[in-house]
Amino acid sequence: MLPLKYLQAYPATLQDKVRLLIAQQRLGEHLAKRYPDRHSVQSDKALYAYTMELKQQHLKNAPGIDKVLYDSKLDVVQRALGLHTAISRVQGSKLKAKKEIRVAALFKAAAPEFLQMIVVHELAHLKEVDHNKAFYQLCTYMLPDYHQVEFDLRVYLTWRELPRASEEDHG
Ligand SMILES: [Zn+2]
Asked: How many angstroms is it from 166 CA to the middle of ligand 1?
């Protein structure tokens, strides 16, 4: 049986649905139908503006962000859901944490829903370090459909890594 590394935490019935779509070579078509749009957030500058707007809308009082960028070296396998870092820098005599949000570069070409989901995820980390209940409450507060979109994002990541030979026509 095909292992679905991004979907391991989901019920077997859901995983089997995805396996069936893969076997039928219909997963790309399925995703294209659900997520037909693309977005124009293509630069680090645009990503910063996009992130700050979401923060302003939903998390005004969360700590500030110093830097937001696309990272082409981000290991998507290990970090399917972005990377959150607080880099400590010595500034004068004080140690100040620098808040940085890195988003895997693959999200440039992904559906706007997936970009939104990943940015919401990273914003929630400004307030909650761990993936606990409070963290997911923040996520669904910013994006009510959060859990569904996260599942679909994981399906998208699965599809991206299907062997070329079985890649279907999704153009
Ligand atoms: Zn996280």
From this structure: 31
Res. 171 pLDDT band, cuts 50 70 90: very low
User: CATH for 11-160?
Assistant: 3.30.2010.10
Please check whether residue 107 is in contact with residue 114, taking contact to mean a CB–CB distance below 8 angstroms.
Answer: yes
139 Cα to the center of ligand 1, angstroms: 11
Domain boundaries, the chain: 11-160
Q: How far is the CA of 64 from the centre of ligand 1 (A)?
A: 18
Distance (Å) from CA 24 to ligand 1 centroid? 32
Task: Supply the pTM of this predicted model.
Answer: 0.86
pLDDT band at 94 (very low <50, low <70, confident <90, very high): low
Nearest in space to 82 (alpha carbons), one of 127, 14, 131: 131
